[in-house]
Amino acid sequence: MTERDWRPRYIQVAEDLRDQILRGELPPGSAMLSETDLSERYDLSRTSVRNAIKQLKDWGLVRSKQGQGTYVRAPRQRVERRHTERYQWEKDRARLGEPERGETGATEFDTGLDLPDLEFRAKYTIVEADDNLAGIFGVPAGTALLKREYWTSTRSEDSPLSLVRSYLLRDIVAANPDLMDEAKEPWPGGTQNQLYTLGIELETIVDRLTARPPLPEEADVLDIEVGVSVLVLHKTSIDTQGRVVEFSEVILPGDRTEIVHVTTLERWA
Amino acid sequence: MTERDWRPRYIQVAEDLRDQILRGELPPGSAMLSETDLSERYDLSRTSVRNAIKQLKDWGLVRSKQGQGTYVRAPRQRVERRHTERYQWEKDRARLGEPERGETGATEFDTGLDLPDLEFRAKYTIVEADDNLAGIFGVPAGTALLKREYWTSTRSEDSPLSLVRSYLLRDIVAANPDLMDEAKEPWPGGTQNQLYTLGIELETIVDRLTARPPLPEEADVLDIEVGVSVLVLHKTSIDTQGRVVEFSEVILPGDRTEIVHVTTLERWA
DNA sequence: GAGTGGTCTAGACCACTGT
DNA sequence: CAGTGGTCTAGACCACTCC
C-alpha cells in the first residue's frame, strides 16, 4: 500500500486486500487475518477495518462466518444456460413417448438445465391472478392460476441453482389431473411435454432479463452474500394461437450463471 | 416499528424506512431526516443509523450527497433492449444507402438502442489481444485489435445507459480507413454497416449474460450505488464464413435495463 | 457559519464457533 | 474456554453545500 493517498484509509485497505486476493496471495477458501489482527497490521481502528471488509463483501470477494472468521470466496462452478437451443430441444422431445424421453438421460424441466445429477423440490398452490399476472395472461384479475415453485440444485452442492415461480391457467391445466399433483414432479419431458398432454404447442418464448441485488431471503436460499447480484428472468410462453400459456420468474445467482442466447440472421440474397 | 424484535436495531430501522418509502410516505426525491435527527428519533447512535442507511443504499432505495442530505431515489426510466429483433433490423438496413439509413431517424449502433435522442462518446485504440481475446477470435495472442470504447447516454439524462468495449481485428478493419477514425462516430447504420463496407455479412450473434456488482469506476460512471447490480453482456458476432469478426462487452445498469430475447420454435408438422 | 454526510477512534457487550 | 465476527455507543474532525 503506497503512502500519501488522498482516498479514505478503509478504501486503501480494501484495495490492498483485493489485490492480494486477485494476485493469488490469498487463495480461495483461505482465512483472512482476524479483524483485530488487521487493525494492528494497518494501524487502524477495528471499525475502519470492518468498513474495508464490508467493501470486499460488496465486491463479492469474501464472506464472513460469525465465530469463525472471514474467508476468501471460491469462484463457484458456473452454469451455462443455452436458452435458444434448449427451448427447441425441449420442444423436439415433447412429443416423444416417455421411454425415449427417459433415454436422453436428462431431467428436463423449466430451468433449461440438463445436468444428470439434478435434484429439486416443488410446491404447488392455487392462487388468484393479481393485476400484473392478469395483464400478462390477458385474463381478468382474480382468475385462478396454478402456481408452481421449484428449488433446483445439483446433488453435489446444496445451494440451489435457481428459484422458479411458474404460473399456468388452472382451467387449462385441470384437463389433466396429473399436472396438478406436485408429487408427479419432476415431470419427464418438462413443461413443454406437460402442455403437450393438454394439446398445447408452443411457438414463441420471450425471455426478459434484469439484474438486481438479492432480497434477504433469496440471498439466504441461494447461499450468496447480499453483495452478489441475481439475474431475474421473466419467461413468457406463447402457443401457436398466440395465447400466453405459461409465465415464470426465475431467480439465478449472478456469480455462477451465464445465460446464452443465439440469434441467427437471415442471409442476404 | 414494533417493539420486541430479536433482529438488530439497525435492520429494523432500515425496514421501517423502507416501508415508508414503499408506501409513498417518503416520495421519490424527498429528503430523509438527517442522520442526527434519525438517531434522536429512533434513540440510536449515529453509527447505527448510518448502518441502517447503508442498507437502504444497498437496496438501491436512497442516495446520499455530502453536505446536502440523503434522498429517496426516483425509480429510473427502464430501457428495453429487444435483441432478437434489433440484430435482424440492423442487418436489414446495413446494405441501404446512407440517405435511407438516415431516414429511419435512429442513431444505430452497437448498443441495440434506437432512441432518437441518443448521445455518446467514443474512443479508439489499437491493442494487442490477450489470451482471452485471442481465444475468442481464434488468433495468436498479441494480434493487433481495434478497441472501441463507447459511453452512451440519452440527452435528457446525464448518466450513461451503457458502457461498451468492442474489439475488431485491425487487419480486417484497415481496409476502410474511415472505420479507424473515432471522429466518424456515430457511424450511420451501426457496426453491421461498417462491416458491410468491408464485405462482411453477419450470420450469428451470440449473447452471453451475467450479473455482478459494479466495479467502483463503473458505479461512478453509470451513476449507480455500489449496491445496484450491473448486467454484463458478452456479444460475439460471427460472419457467414464462421469467423468471429467482433466481440464486445457491454455493461448495463441492472436497475434500468431489461434485455429481451424472443425464441421462435419450429412448428410441428 | 450552520448543517450535512464521510471518516475514524476506543472502547463495550453479544452470539457464535472451535477446543 | 478463548477467539471470532456482529452490534452498538459517544464522542471527534473533516469536506462539502447552502445561505
Automatic annotation (TrEMBL), chains A, B:
Keyword terms of this UniProt record: DNA-binding, Transcription, Transcription regulation
Q: Where is the composition biased (Basic and acidic residues)?
A: 91-103
Q: Which residues form the HTH gntR-type domain?
A: 7-75
Q: Where is this region: Disordered?
A: 91-110
Under InterPro entries, the record lists: Bact_HTH_transcr_reg, Chorismate_lyase_/UTRA_dom_sf, Tscrpt_reg_HTH_GntR, UTRA, WH-like_DNA-bd_sf, WH_DNA-bd_sf
Q: Per its UniProt record, what SUPFAM superfamilies does this chain match?
A: Chorismate lyase-like (SSF64288), Winged helix' DNA-binding domain (SSF46785)
The keyword Transcription is annotated on this UniProt entry: yes
What superkingdom heads the lineage? Bacteria
Q: What is this protein called?
A: GntR family transcriptional regulator
Organism for this UniProt entry: Nonomuraea longicatena
